[in-house]
Write a structure and sequence with these properties.
One of its GO terms (biological process) is canonical glycolysis. The chain is α/β, with parallel strands linked by helices and 822 residues long. It contains 28 helices and 27 strands. It has 4 domains: 227 residues, Rossmann fold; 124 residues, Phosphofructokinase domain (Rossmann fold); 208 residues, Rossmann fold (3-Layer(aba) Sandwich), CATH 3.40.50; 138 residues, Phosphofructokinase domain (Rossmann fold), CATH 3.40.50.460. It is globular, with a radius of gyration of 28 Å. Bound molecules: adenosine-5'-diphosphate (ADP).
């Protein structure tokens, strides 16, 4: 996902990071990553307070005294810790921590920061270094002053975290840099030596925008958290709407981009959405909307939810406003309608797991790209494409972003929609299908199928959303969705009551429900092929959709193998991987893994608070996940854990010993009474010997007066309560693809099923495909029940780097800091 090996390490770089424009949750995690990675790579790191405004204002007073090392020179193994002192001197507290919000920050906007300045920033919303709109920076004079401030502090690289406006500003600064410096030299604000030394400014953009409105990246920092806030709000509105049989019109952010509205519509099971890129198809959209919503009411729905992006337009570019929509619903459908404008609530709160991860990975990559840059490389924007952190030309990204707005202005909606990524369009299609009741004539297939839907294995967040979408898509296409209750045991049950058609209304509230509405267990078809075959025939099941984890994959695999003996298995079958462990081979993400990650992050935040409050405490947190370390590794990165243990890497005495030494050294460096506490994440199956209990006791013994330890087992809480919106939307998208696959691969049983008619839907490089069982089997480690080449495995290195373990336990800072301090 990310390269950890910069080709062009330059230990003398001075990197400066700022956040600008609208704040976005996750910006702090990005700043934290830039600071830590920058220091790790041997750079000096500065932060700018208050965005471009701070860069223009600069420092009007001098820096206070240098780092207060003496307070931090701890002892280690009873001796003076020269390694630790070195670390503290270079990495420890920078100006931020020393001065806090006190007098020292007055008149100073560009501050040198250290490792501990950004400690604990991961889970804080907004941006701690401040942001501001800055009119001066829009003018050349303002940018010249900003350039002067950078040059006078010897800074030659800038990481800008912000939206398209901020990055446009960044692009202009870089474009004008040579001429700005010429002007500064002419006016004698800088000398020729400075002019020469700073001939080149490296700029890297990291996109922080809750609207997800930047082109050339699939997602921007803050958008997933905003989606969380919206989903929480719409879920809450749903229950009151249902109680009073009301309609609600909810306005969400998105001036030029409907991502939030589409995702929220899908995740929350809304009835209608309006977005800027795709206005209603007809001029008389009011009637179109009313007809659809009336059909829902006629079907017995007690609530109506309409979501409007703030930039929604009709075909003539006339804004569609919530109050007008509410008026239409009241007048034409006599619905008791209320308007809710979510506004700034969407920006707020703790960043969700996805944002923390995204911001961390992008912050790291920003530093790498700075170090790789040469005068001939373009300024980069760090994005995410196909689940890989990517670098694209900042200039091109800024241009492409503007072109969406241009296309909308020209009423060229096809182009506007085409400029969004394919996932956006698939999600839009999924939303549309979820609102259709009667099969449209052109949709109804000649072959109407009876499609069985079954949950297999442990529950996972999003299973119900997948079932809802599959059922509704089936109904819209003229098929019969059949719920198979209680897994394969239900299928085998006498009397046949546990196999029932699902109705449109029945699944209405399932999007937001956790657990499994159908019921799930670990029984497998191989436990009784005879009964499985009989039941499939009795219920005339033409195709099967399995939703579950490794068991679901095992189930379909065995059904396929047994096809030669059982004609009933000669049907199309598909699996939607749904498990918190994320251990299904080939796929990067299974439904439920995002929910679990969020549950883990929430629990760790609470535990961290306790660890910090009691000072000097190490928590050993145990996670589920079977023999797959996904949740532990990615969770460790998203929470800022110091150490992670996984079954893939295992544990041995040497490793544990090194980790203990690291913790001792790290705690010794803390200012007495100011330690925040730390934590370790350990997957349940990392080692049979070095158990969570063992580790906790050992740390207690070894920590002596430096630290104490406690254990916390997160257990089943990781299945999560309410599924995350990302899981819900992902579940819907995968469900539609699977049903389409079942349609395409359903042949008459007599003709026999083709080999590729049994598949697992997988996300590979961010792309969705149905992988034939043979492909999945090739990538499966059946003994350990996990995939062979997990994409996230290397992320553990980042955990080590960002916790300081690499530097402190292995003495690496020596080679890094020699350059930085000279
Ligand atoms: P966002 O970055 O969230 O899109 P804005 O559009 O408000 O937010 O931009 C933030 C800041 O970036 C502005 O206040 C301004 O200082 C700077 N900026 C925006 N557009 C430009 C531009 N075209 N040229 C120079 N600076 C710009």
């Amino acid at each position: 996902m990310i390269s950890l090996h910069s080709k062009n390490e330059n230990p003398k770089r001075r990197i400066c990071v700022l956040s600008s424009g609208g704040d976005a949750p996750g910006m702090n995690a990005a700043v934290r990553a830039v600071v830590k990675m920058g220091l790790y790579r041997g750079c000096e790191v500065y932060i700018v307070r208050e965005g471009w405004a701070g860069l223009v204002a600069g420092n009007t007073t001098n820096a206070p005294t240098e780092v207060r090392q003496s307070r931090r020179a701890g002892t280690y193994k009873g001796k003076r810790d020269t390694e630790g002192e070195n670390f503290a001197a270079t990495y420890g507290e920078g100006e931020l921590l020393q001065e806090g919000a006190g007098e020292g920050l007055k008149g100073r906007h560009i501050l040198k920061v250290g490792w501990d300045d950004v400690r604990g920033w991961m889970d804080i919303g907004g941006t701690l270094i401040g942001t501001a709109r800055c009119a001066e920076f829009r003018e050349r004079e303002g940018r010249a002053t900003a350039a002067y401030n950078l040059v006078s502090l010897g800074i030659d690289a800038l990481v800008v975290i912000g939206g398209d406006g901020s990055l446009t500003g960044a692009d202009r600064l870089r474009g004008e840099w040579p001429s700005l410096l010429d002007d500064l030299e002419k006016s004698k604000r800088i000398d020729s030596e400075q002019r020469k030394r700073h001939a080149h400014l490296t700029i890297t953009g990291v996109v922080g925008s809750i609207d997800n409105d930047m082109a050339m990246t699939d997602i921007t920092i803050g958008a997933p958290t905003a989606l969380h806030r919206i989903s929480e709000a719409v879920d809450s509105i749903g229950s009151t709407a249902s109680s009073h049989s009301r309609a609600f019109v909810v306005e969400v952010m998105g001036r030029h981009c409907g991502w939030l509205a589409v995702m929220a519509g899908l995740a929350c099971g809304a009835d209608y959405i309006f977005i800027p890129e795709r206005p209603p198809t007809t001029e008389d959209w009011e009637s179109e909307m009313c007809n659809l919503l009336k059909s829902h009411r006629d079907h017995g729905k007690r609530k109506t939810i309409v979501i409007i992006a703030e930039g929604a337009l009709d075909r003539q570019l006339k804004p569609i406003k919530p109050a007008y929509v509410a008026e239409i619903l009241t007048k034409r459908l006599q619905l008791d309608t209320r308007v809710t404008t979510l506004g700034h609530v969407q920006r707020g709160g703790k960043p969700c797991a996805y944002d923390r991860l995204l911001a961390t990975l992008q912050g790291v990559e920003a530093v790498e790209s700075v170090l790789d840059s040469t005068p001939s490389t373009p300024s980069y924007m760090i994005g995410l494409k196909e689940n890989k952190v990517s670098r694209t030309s900042l200039m091109e990204a800024v241009k492409a972003t503007a072109s969406v707005g241009d296309a909308i202005e020209k009423k060229d909606f096809k182009t506007a929609l085409g400029l969004r990524d394919p996932e956006f369009q698939e999600n839009l299609e999924a939303f549309d299908y979820s609102t259709i009741i009667e099969p449209k004539k052109d949709m109804s297939r000649s072959q109407n199928l009876r499609i069985g839907i079954i949950h297999v294995g442990a529950p996972a967040g999003g299973m119900n959303a997948a079932t809802r979408e599959a059922a509704r898509f089936c109904l819209a296409r003229g098929h019969t969705p059949l719920a198979i209750y209680n897994g394969f045991e239900g299928l085998w049950a006498e009397g046949g009551n546990s196999v029932q058609p699902l109705s449109w209304l029945q699944v209405d509230n399932w999007s937001s429900r956790g657990g499994s509405e159908l019921g799930t267990n670990r029984s497998l078809p191989a436990d009784d092929f005879e009964k499985t075959s009989e039941a499939l025939q009795t219920h005339n099941i033409d195709a099967l959709l399995l939703i579950g984890g490794y068991e679901a994959y095992t189930a379909i695999s065995s059904l396929k193998k047994a096809r030669t003996h059982y004609a009933a298995f000669q049907i199309a079958m598909a699996v939607i991987p749904a498990t918190l462990s994320n251990n299904v081979p080939l796929t990067e993400f299974s439904v439920g893994s995002d929910t679990a990650l969020n549950a883990l992050v929430d629990a760790c935040d609470a535990i961290k608070q306790s660890a910090a409050a009691s000072r000097n405490r190490v928590f050993v947190i145990e996670t589920q996940g079977g023999k797959c370390g996904y949740l532990a590794t990615v969770g460790a990165l998203a929470t800022g854990a110091n150490i992670v243990y996984t079954p893939e890497i295992g544990m041995d005495l040497e490793l544990v010993q090194k980790d203990v030494e690291f913790l001792k050294r790290r705690f010794a460096l803390d200012i007495k009474g100011k330690s925040d506490g730390r934590f370790i994440i350990r997957n349940e199956k990392s080692s049979q010997v070095y158990t969570t209990e063992f580790l906790t006791n050992m740390l207690k013994e070894e920590g002596k007066d430096l630290f104490d330890s406690r254990a916390a087992n997160l257990g089943h809480t990781l299945q999560g309560g309410t599924p995350s919106p990302i899981d819900r939307a992902r579940a819907c998208r995968l469900a539609i693809r699977c049903i389409k696959f079942l349609e395409e691969h359903s042949t008459s049983r007599q003709a026999g099923a083709k080999d590729d008619s049994a598949a697992v839907i997988v996300i590979e490089n961010g792309q969705v495909r149905l992988a034939p069982i043979a492909d999945v089997a090739k990538n499966a480690d059946d003994k350990n029940r996990r995939g062979l080449h997990p994409w996230w495995l290397d992320l553990r290195h980042l955990v080590e780097i960002l916790s300081g373990r690499r530097t402190l336990a292995e003495g690496r800072h020596h080679e890094d800091t020699i350059g930085a301090t000279s």
